[in-house]
Amino acid sequence: METRLPTGVKDFLPVKAAKLDYLQNTLRSIYHSWGFRPVAPAILEDLSVLELGLGTDLREKTFRFDDRQTGRLVAFPPDITPQVARIAATRMRDMPLPFRLCYNGRVLRHTEQQLGKDRQIYQSGVELIGLSGPEADAEMIAMAVMCLQAVGASGFTIDIGQVEFLRGVLDDLPLDAAQSRDVRTAIAAKDISGLQQKLKGLPLTDRQRDELLALPRLYGGHETLDQARQVITNPASQKALDNLERILKVLTVYGIEEHITLDLGEMRGFDYHSGLIFQGFLSGFGQAVCAGGRYDGLTERYGFAAPATGFAFNLYNLLFALDRVLDERAEEGTDILLFSSGQDKAPAQHLAAVLRSQGYSVARDIIERDQAASLDYARRMHYRYLLVIEPAEEEMILIRTADGENTCVTSAAIGSGQFRI
Amino acid sequence: METRLPTGVKDFLPVKAAKLDYLQNTLRSIYHSWGFRPVAPAILEDLSVLELGLGTDLREKTFRFDDRQTGRLVAFPPDITPQVARIAATRMRDMPLPFRLCYNGRVLRHTEQQLGKDRQIYQSGVELIGLSGPEADAEMIAMAVMCLQAVGASGFTIDIGQVEFLRGVLDDLPLDAAQSRDVRTAIAAKDISGLQQKLKGLPLTDRQRDELLALPRLYGGHETLDQARQVITNPASQKALDNLERILKVLTVYGIEEHITLDLGEMRGFDYHSGLIFQGFLSGFGQAVCAGGRYDGLTERYGFAAPATGFAFNLYNLLFALDRVLDERAEEGTDILLFSSGQDKAPAQHLAAVLRSQGYSVARDIIERDQAASLDYARRMHYRYLLVIEPAEEEMILIRTADGENTCVTSAAIGSGQFRI
Hints:
The structure is a homodimer. Chain A is 39% helix and 22% strand. By secondary structure, chain A is of the alpha+beta class. Chain A folds into two domains: 14-327, BirA Bifunctional Protein, domain 2; 336-415, Rossmann fold. In chain A, strands 1-5-6-12-11-10-7-9-8 form a nine-stranded mixed β-sheet, with helices on both faces. The radius of gyration of chain A is 28 Å and the shape is elongated. The two termini of chain A are 44 Å apart. Chains A and B meet through α1, β1, β2, α2 and β3 of A and α1, β1, β2, α2 and β3 of B.
């Protein structure tokens, strides 16, 4: 029987789904502690409305179709930030700025099939709308760091850059779009020899060539800013360096400088990004687990000009990068399976209710089977204990599934709250 | 500027989104306490695979489109139960039964436009797969009751019925599909005079007519079962009554009989339902907030025969029915807005971190404005307090936004954990 899923989308079974829940809830609690309030944008948008907030990059990746009931073209958002920008710009515009908003949801994106990339992406993120300036950007980076610490990440780096820095270099060059893209790709890959090859055929001065060849090396700690200042002298790039310097200064006060790496040869991010961009990486995992940056022009596309900055986690990447850490944190086994052999189910129902009210997770084994089969089930389905109720006996047997160890407990002990597992 | 959403879908702004979060988290914790573990089915399905699990009713409501990257017809699930059935039947089939699974997600359904119905539905539900018998069905009803109590519902009713009861009556009659549907609609609406009119033109015996006219009245408490037994005598209906009797008996042990109403003239539910069906209603709200029932044939359509039962909440209906109750329970205002007038932001950053570590939600007002403007912002954006830090002063002023009341606090008091708001 054919039961496969469409390419690039997945089911999450209990162990992974519990980890996903843990990540969503933990991130949500950090957002809340920083004063961010939830929004839940619609699952569908009119394509023409959504596209106001999308650059070419995301437009090409958007799932779109005819709405049979209205005849309009509709779309599934490939990104939640433009939706939050629309909500801020339209339904919240009469409220005082800034807005601190957070969300949690799934987006769909067409991606290169041959790379086996996910098309369904679980996102969890925040948007800080109405604030310009380095403190707002630093707040985003500090929150990303707090979030990563809260979910149990130990070795991680936030790579920061600024779109105008590289743009300042490239805009001065007599290159067409294709040449410019080639050069950018080689710089981003830090592929110096490849970049040298590419530059040979291009109509550049020695100075321009030197600037471009310096870019892949502009990666590292605070000293990278000074190195960059010496090599790259156009005003736009210098201004970008000044901004990054100010953000770094705020991050030092937060005490999280150790997690920050400057990456000035990078111009990732979406078309809507302006100013600071950043990505978070866990050691040993090549994909970014979070990404964000400033997007000052986005809400204006919905008729309400406001500076803004934000970031989002890719929860699937985060889950995989932290898989082992989450084995312990997101333990979702059930505490107790109740087995009663008699016909009268009332004592078991009552006991289950008492245990649940004490915070335990409890299921009753209401299938017809013997105690050995019930214990086997409990073991295989990750129950911690089997509790065996004998009809007309005050004492019950508590069996630990991990090793079969037996203890006697009484319903009186459970009822009086003395029971602990 | 055109910024409208497609018909039947909505954004949730902070106040409502916080209520939605509260409902999702509270229900999830009840599911967990009953031993249910989460699954997160894919956002998209191949249409042909999904349709295995859908009856005509849901097939007609399914959003479908061509997947541009694969050329296959794909669909957005109109219901999560068939997805969980697929997962149980394929990816979990080697695990021991029963499966206790829960989920939380959004579905899309085409609906009658003229009624202004939602097409985007937030669902939260559970599936108990691998168990037949009244105890499993009673567990679903008992859980629905616990869930409603946990989210703060006071007056509510669970209407229960069984698809075979009405089917037993209708299958015996010489009616075509359209006539049968007409009769069913009048019975469901408890429209006795309309039903009398409809029956006049139909080729029925007096006894058949009497049975049909009795159905709308078969609504009420336990005594309804005896009334039904006297009027409706076909074996299928009698068997359904026996099953309902057994379920009611278990519900009496749970002590939740007071919430149960029998509704034997009702045959709602989806095409996949067999056996018990039920719906939950809050007093004063006409839409069902939850619905469920037995669906013994569904997993078999994915190659794995197993009895099953389950239910789901419609979170949007639940939110609206409980809107006022949730005003208090899902309070999502932020505790403190920090205002510091000086240039040195370090003390405010540090203080914010300390307060967050104590469980408070805290934002810093990093926009340039004076204290009066900051207080006005705090008030309008539902902060409970404004905390004013004066440079080089040990004492700070805490202003309650509700009434402007001032208190002095010191950072030493906050640092030592003596601070309480």
